[in-house]
Amino acid sequence: MAHAQFFEEYEPGSGRKTIGRTITESDIVLHAGQTGDFYPHHMDAEWCKTQPFGQRIAHGTLIFSIGVGLTASAINPHAMSYGYDRLRFVKPVFIGDTIHTLVTVKEKRRDPRRPSHGIVVEMYEVRNQHDETVLVCEHLLLVEYGRLKSAADSSPQ
Amino acid sequence: MAHAQFFEEYEPGSGRKTIGRTITESDIVLHAGQTGDFYPHHMDAEWCKTQPFGQRIAHGTLIFSIGVGLTASAINPHAMSYGYDRLRFVKPVFIGDTIHTLVTVKEKRRDPRRPSHGIVVEMYEVRNQHDETVLVCEHLLLVEYGRLKSAADSSPQ
Amino acid sequence: MAHAQFFEEYEPGSGRKTIGRTITESDIVLHAGQTGDFYPHHMDAEWCKTQPFGQRIAHGTLIFSIGVGLTASAINPHAMSYGYDRLRFVKPVFIGDTIHTLVTVKEKRRDPRRPSHGIVVEMYEVRNQHDETVLVCEHLLLVEYGRLKSAADSSPQ
Amino acid sequence: MAHAQFFEEYEPGSGRKTIGRTITESDIVLHAGQTGDFYPHHMDAEWCKTQPFGQRIAHGTLIFSIGVGLTASAINPHAMSYGYDRLRFVKPVFIGDTIHTLVTVKEKRRDPRRPSHGIVVEMYEVRNQHDETVLVCEHLLLVEYGRLKSAADSSPQ
Amino acid sequence: MAHAQFFEEYEPGSGRKTIGRTITESDIVLHAGQTGDFYPHHMDAEWCKTQPFGQRIAHGTLIFSIGVGLTASAINPHAMSYGYDRLRFVKPVFIGDTIHTLVTVKEKRRDPRRPSHGIVVEMYEVRNQHDETVLVCEHLLLVEYGRLKSAADSSPQ
Amino acid sequence: MAHAQFFEEYEPGSGRKTIGRTITESDIVLHAGQTGDFYPHHMDAEWCKTQPFGQRIAHGTLIFSIGVGLTASAINPHAMSYGYDRLRFVKPVFIGDTIHTLVTVKEKRRDPRRPSHGIVVEMYEVRNQHDETVLVCEHLLLVEYGRLKSAADSSPQ
Q1: Which of A28, A93, A98, A129 to mutate to test the interface with E (most CBs of E within 10 A)?
Q2: Is the CB of residue A73 less than 8 Å away from at least one CB of chain E?
Q3: Inside any domain, residue D153
């Protein structure tokens, strides 16, 4: 389950696609329970019938949490997530929709405050079963440089 | 539970503080179960003892979801959340920490694509029991203008 | 989220209506899991087909818990719940039904044992999407008198 | 798991004691999630330290639901629960307390509206590990008369 | 809820049938969350449409856990479960299927390592609403001999 | 997340070790809720104090489900689980213990009923933080032969 990768090894443009996950009524009920957000958009099927979208929609934080969680299949011990930029809820997700996440290395840059690490920006696109994008965000990763690590590894202890 | 507010009524600099919530081991277990992120940082107390932080830490998406959920006490029917910017995980949250969210209206701007709505940027700061900031982000709200609404309300149907 | 109210401020006949909540199969499964009540009325769809109601019904304690929970939107720091009277399960609630609670101040009386507090009786009516009453009960609140509180507040410390 | 009992067979004064159950932090977190009641009395350990009880307390509806659930070990096909009277929260229940329920047949009476059934009133006392009563209520059961049933059973079909 | 039974009292060939339980989408979501098994067979309705079984199937460990759990209605203080043999997943269980468990005493034998106990082998068959067997296993119970117990009970303390 | 492997590629004696997972009170509460097994061994801390093991222990089916779930990190599209043999609960698992699973290919054999598949027997050993074995079982996998598959792949369509 570990997949070690140094900063130098991230290639802009490369990517991967996660497995899929059907968003169920249970997920919405559990997320309301976890967050305390019981807004009628998520929890009141009758009220939703009177709204433009016509049915209950998943919480934005649920789709974000699951969309990110889907990418958590391999741990990179040299990387640390430190934030997200430009998180947008592009389309609603309904009960029964199936989502997956596309991860693409968007860019790499130096970390101005840490010479030992670089910043990798991964583009996350969460898509539904119609291949429509429902959520996007940029994931910021702090990743160790391999040359320093290698140097350290070969130094006498 | 509804608190109607038009774009004109948001005042930059004004703010509110939510109630608090203790982050429990249950929250982490449930969030791992919801997202599928069972990384040892959250789920393996033995491994965590060997790490700099020394104990299990809450998922970033959990603190984001609860931090946002804490603000969900009053629905504004004229507003719609459409995203977040500059989400950063500033400090780890441990089992037993108690967090609350500070919401401050940071700025207001026109929506270039929609004359009927403006954009309100709310600053969210999630703090722990030592009043240390653990997570920050900017919440983007699309809010209806009242003058248009009022005009529409007074027009003959 | 706090809404301070002294005994004197409760007005018999006044009331409020909560937001709605759709009762899902998940709620029943989670409530069975929380309480240990796995009776076939709630958990065995096949057996239920052979019964007069024809389908699974929600636990009485679930509808009571959610019906009461829906009223928990504003904390009154001067009040304390101490019990319920005449709790009745009037009609079954099925999976997919949407309930809300009507709260009405039914009566106020002195607390014979505590001169500083009075008893407020709130009528709770839980209704479904057809506006049929499914559960009723009387909620007993112990509420502080404002005059005493005010007197205490103005006294030298 | 079935224990058939007709109205005639309930003996006032007879009783039983359920198995015990430790109330955990998880139970409180799950009940908050199920009901939407995230009041700081249950969810904010820091705030609770400043209160007379000094720590988080279980929701009243949680103790009621579990206290009742503990009695659900044997289904009586001739009985139907239709309500509760005089439900009182006598003492707070803290995380780690272990409760059980004492069930005693308190009284029996005719159902004025139904000649085929009688009303059995069971006293429920929920007690903690110090044998202190934490919750009481009277459970109202509608129970079929056996003589009528027996007559029906022996009649030609 | 206790049903004491010594080794001598188990009769090969005798059996019982548990109550039924409908397997819901919630059960699968919760079990994935508990175990971390988010394989598309259980969680991706779209992918399942492309497979021979055409729809999501319950985890084998879920059906085993619930099938065993259904038998847990009466505690025998003289018995201890120490394992299972020949656990087989005979047919898939789909969302909405209702299962129950048939327990039959298959055989009894001496425990070569413990003169005070014997081994009882119970056959568990989990069946669905069409009375098709979906899972089988043999449950191994270590059960105390009554004669020894009785002798001990009558000995001076 | 997919790791395709044909029957020929399984090597007896080879193995892997999963990541670890701390068993929490939440896991036990959730498993009781999922299975309906609320036996005092798992749920009554007070009663457990009077027993030889002195504290609550995890359900056998919980440790089996999580122990198996830990191995579910890579899907082999050519393999199908069809059962388990010799499942034994070797030692109790307590709240706070951290478990992982060792998977070793124990043996391979022909499937007498299916020429296209062979049977792979994997030994699962679930160990705690003291490297003590708490549960063992043999996992039976039905795995496709690669030569047949390869032949099929190269045949004209």
Answers
A1: A98
A2: no
A3: no
Mean pLDDT per 10-residue segment, chain B (157 residues)? 87 96 98 97 98 97 98 88 96 98 96 92 98 98 80 46
Chain D hits for B21, Cβ within 8 Å: 38, 43-44
Interchain CB contact of D33 with F (< 8 Å): no
**Cβ contacts of residue C36 below 8 Å, gap of 6+?**
D21, D66, D69, D70, D72, F32, F36, F38
Q: What span, in angstroms and rounded, lies between the C-alpha atoms of F66 and E31?
A: 10
A101 interfaces chain F, CB cutoff of 8 Å: no
Distance CA B133, CA A48 (A): 36
Task: Give C110→chain B minimum CA distance, Å.
Answer: 30
Domain annotation covers residue F150: no
Instruction: State which residues form the domain around E79.
Output: 7-144
d(CA E92, CA E75): 30
Give start and end residues of each alpha helix (H) in chain A.
25-35, 40-43, 45-49, 60-69, 146-154
pTM given for the model? 0.93
CA distances from B142 to B2, B4, B85, B124 (A): 17, 13, 14, 16
Residue E78 belongs to a domain: yes
Give the CA distances from residue C156 to residues C78, C144, C151, in Å, rounded to whole numbers and listed in that order.
21, 20, 10
Cβ <8 Å between C33 and F38: no
Query: Domain with B111 in it: what CATH number?
Result: 3.10.129.10
Q: Count the domains in chain B.
A: 1
Chain E adjacent subunits, 3+ CB pairs under 8 A:
A, B, C, D, F
Interface mutation vs chain E, best among B28, B31, B37, B38, most E CBs within 10 Å:
B38
A154 inside domain:
no
